[in-house]
User: Fold this.
Amino acid sequence: MATILVMDHSGDTKQQFDPNDSEQLAWAHARFSELTSDGYTAAVRRSSGEAALVRTLDPTAEETLFYPRLVGG
Assistant:
């Protein structure tokens, strides 16, 4: 199972999907596109414990984190 974690003003929302299930994977790709279009930045945690920004869904990542882009100063 893989997890999509969305951090926003309402709290953290976790949604899991099976990357081996074509319907669930299609949902995850659509959710990725929706969130990034809405202004969220996506990152995945690498095996070394470091995070890396991503521009497309990586179905091999255990967790994809979405957080709002900060705008302004």
Summary: The CA atoms of residues 5 and 65 lie 5 Å apart.
